[in-house]
Design a protein that fits this description.
Blueprint (H helix, E strand, L loop, with lengths): L10 H18 L1 E2 L9 E2 L2 E2 L3 H6 L4 H21 L11 H15 L9 H21 L4 H18 L16 E3 H13 L3 H14 L11 E5 L2 E5 L7 H11 L2 H17 L19 H13 L6 H20 L2 E2 L14 E2 L8 H4 L6 E2 H15 L8
Antiparallel strand pairs: 1-2, 3-9, 4-5, 5-6, 7-8
């Protein structure tokens, strides 16, 4: 896609595209765990074997973002009264609920693991699922509240005074970083623990915010008794801290959020465009989408200056348009001969077509397809850019 291409500003069009991405992911990657009825989980790579999915890495946090994407689709179903995959197939909310149950089964009957950032992403997703359940009066709220209670205890234990504050990344407790601290801060803010959330935000501002660039660095590692600053700047880390700043509100936080949106536009877009840069495959295949999710929140937050909202919208819509333009049809991934449109594949790099990055016969990772899906979901929430 050239930088001169004007992206669509029609939310209905983006909603239809998000539905297409949702159908492609759920039909191509979604499957039962051990063929157990009532279970649902995302295959890490397709094509792939059942044995590999059980014995190999299964990426807990990818599944958490899968839940989040299904909640996005579920909210749209609630608004429109129409299921994303047809009335004869499960709703997005039901699939999300099955997925949460299956995550626990696949994780050896526990929601806890060794990485606090993983748990934070699941906590955020299940909290949103709980809100959706409340609005739709569907069962599952008790289980989601149980998850929130269990994982909050984990975050409380990991958010210590070591290194002056922040949240440890893993149970090794040798690294405090933005990937864990930011989503934990956002979770605290959304669940009424505002003082804890603000303390984590203040720690990030004082220890990991790059003064000149205006973006947040990776973290502080404890090594041989000394502290080492990890200076890397990752796209996705800017997303949950932006979300926490908006959730907490107050002039200081909102000013910081506005500056962060401007910094993202300056530092993390492809030169000459408003497209957020890609970060490859594997875990990096989620990075762009996560940032865009929270830019979508900024784009519709009337507490922010109009210019900031427009900048956020432009980045969301330009990145979504790039993913959509680079799509390819992938009939080889269809899991049945049922009639209908073939699955779509999206490139991990917004500005490279999927025909290059995922030619026929190439293994495709779940992370990269969730990334495009969540980007379309963000675009679908935005009013036309010429309206205030």
């Amino acid at each position: 896609m050239s930088s001169s291409t004007e992206p669509s500003t029609n939310p209905s069009e983006w909603a239809a595209r998000a539905n297409q991405a949702a159908r492609s992911v759920t039909r191509s990657f979604g499957r039962r765990l051990l063929f157990l009825p009532g279970t649902h989980i995302g295959a890490i790579t397709i094509p792939g074997s059942s044995a590999r999915s059980l014995l190999g890495p299964w990426h807990y946090w990818w599944q958490a973002h899968y839940v989040d994407c299904l909640v996005d689709a579920g909210r749209r179903e609630l608004a429109t009264g129409t299921r994303f995959d047809g009335e004869s197939r499960p709703s997005a909310g039901r699939l999300a609920s099955r997925l949460v149950t299956t995550i626990r089964l696949r994780n050896l009957l526990r929601f806890e693991n060794h990485y606090y950032d993983d748990m934070a992403w699941l906590a955020l997703a299940t909290h949103r699922l709980e809100k959706l359940a409340e609005e739709t009066r569907k069962p599952g709220r008790r289980r989601n509240a149980y998850i929130r209670k269990r994982l909050t205890l984990q975050f409380d234990s990991a958010s210590t005074d070591d290194l002056g504050g922040g949240t440890f990344w893993s149970t090794k407790r040798d690294f405090k970083n933005t990937p864990a601290t930011a989503p934990v801060a956002l979770f605290y803010a959304r669940t009424g623990h505002r003082e804890r959330a603000q303390a984590l935000v203040q720690w990030l501002n004082s220890r990991l915010l790059h003064a000149e660039r205006g973006v947040y660095q990776d973290g502080i590692r404890i090594r041989n008794g000394a502290t080492v600053l990890e200076e890397a700047v990752y796209t996705y880390n800017q997303g949950p801290i932006l979300g926490a700043l908006l959730e907490l509100g107050g002039q200081e936080n909102l000013d910081r959020a506005a500056r962060l949106v401007d910094a993202v536009a300056r530092e993390l877009t492809v030169p000459g465009t408003r497209v957020i840069r890609g970060d490859g495959t594997g875990d990096g295949g989620l990075f762009t989408g996560i940032l865009v999710r929270y830019l979508g929140l900024a784009g519709r937050d009337n507490r922010l200056p109009a210019t900031t909202r427009e900048t956020a919208k432009e980045m969301v819509l330009s990145t979504a348009a790039a993913f959509w333009t680079g799509r390819r049809e992938a009939p080889e991934l269809a899991r049945s001969r049922a009639t209908g449109n073939p699955p779509l594949l999206f490139s991990p790099d917004p500005l490279r077509p999927a025909t290059e990055t995922y030619p026929a016969g190439t293994g495709v990772e779940l992370s990269t397809q969730l990334q495009a899906w969540m980007t379309f979901e963000a675009a679908a929430t935005l009013a036309p850019t010429n309206s205030q």
